[in-house]
Specification:
- With 183 residues, the protein is of the alpha/beta class.
- It has a single domain, classed as Rossmann fold (3-Layer(aba) Sandwich), CATH 3.40.50.
- Helix content is 33%, strand content 20%.
- The chain contains seven helices and seven strands; from the N terminus they run E-H-H-E-E-E-H-E-H-H-H-E-E-H.
- The strands form two sheets. Strands 2-1-3-5-7 form a five-stranded parallel sheet, sandwiched between helices. Strands 4-6 form a two-stranded antiparallel ribbon.
- The longest helix is centred in the middle third of the chain and has 13 residues.
- The N and C termini lie far apart (37 Å).
- The mean pLDDT is 93.
- It binds iron/sulfur cluster.
């Protein structure tokens, strides 16, 4: 059986979902038999070098770079999975959705308890090289079509393993509420 090609990305996420994937422990040896990783923080391949079968996305979109990355994943992956609450609903970063962007920037760069020391000139970074902040944090399915959703924060390693095996072998998968984990 030829190996499936898998790519992964962390957008506005904390890498906890990627850590959960590594938590499959010794099954990682089996995973390497089943898949070849392409663009991913797991192997540090920065750009797509071939068309992929599965793309796994952690995190939602909080800036223009996240959106560009997500669109690239949609173009280069046959199946795209939103992995974890940040990808599915925006997660913790989306708490800022209730506050105007200008207020968030002022709090981060001007009004925070340590900003007097770190930013004595009171500069809000605005270099054109920096990704532009979006008006709010968007879940991935509001930017591109998503094929599957794996809930949890992070989704449990067993859930990620079962989902990948089911996807790659054409098997069925059940998602009872008990397998969801949020902590
Ligand atoms: Fe981190 Fe949870 Fe978001 Fe995954 S879903 S990136 S573990 S905060």
């Amino acid at each position: 059986m030829s190996k499936a090609i898998v790519a992964t990305a962390s957008l506005a996420g904390c890498f906890g979902c990627h850590m959960s994937l590594l938590d499959i422990d010794e099954r990682i040896l089996k995973l390497i038999e089943l898949v070849e990783f392409n663009k991913s923080p797991i192997d540090d391949i920065k750009e797509f070098t071939k068309q992929c079968d599965v793309g796994i996305i952690e995190g939602g979109c909080c800036n223009s770079e996240n959106v560009e990355n997500l669109i690239k994943f949609r173009k280069n992956c046959k199946i795209l999975i939103s992995c974890g609450e940040c990808a599915i609903m925006g997660g913790l970063p989306a708490l800022r959705n209730f506050i105007p962007v200008s207020e968030c920037l002022e709090e981060a760069y001007l009004g925070g308890p340590t900003t007097g020391l770190c930013n004595p000139d009171k500069i809000i970074p605005n270099d054109e090289e920096l990704p532009m902040l979006l008006d709010k944090v968007y879940p991935c399915h509001e930017i591109v079509k998503i094929d599957y959703f794996l809930p949890g924060c992070p989704p449990r390693a067993d859930l990620l393993w079962d989902a990948l095996v089911a996807l790659l072998t054409g098997g069925e998968m059940k998602l009872p509420y008990e397998v969801f984990k949020f902590d």
